[in-house]
Amino acid sequence: MRVFKIREAVYDVEPLFVLGCDADALVAYVKRHFKVDIERPEDGVIGTSITLRVAPWRIVWSKRNDLATVLHEVFHLTTRICHDRYIQIRAKNERGDVDDEAAACLFTFFARGVLKHMRKT
Predict the structure, then answer these.
(1) Under a CB-based contact definition with an 8 Å cutoff, are residues 73 and 49 in contact?
(2) In 3-state terms, what secondary structure has residue 58?
């Protein structure tokens, strides 16, 4: 199991990443470290983003250390953070300007952090 946080100062978030463990291990880890019961991901689910009512607030989980799955969940994490901060994600707004740059930058920030941690042995 690989566990790490990535601190992002602009939006003041620090999601927890729990990678490379099964759903039962995830549930046990969250219960042990945060005293919170979470719903166990269904059989067949290989990744999810979880929102808690307590810190760390957001958890990204992947059953395997699979980059594509983790980045898929980082996308969900990004959209939830943008929603929390009232940041719209649109390719074009009514003026024809793009509104997705903040989300793209946030996704890139977390993707780089994930890559850094996943490269560690």
Answers:
(1) yes
(2) strand
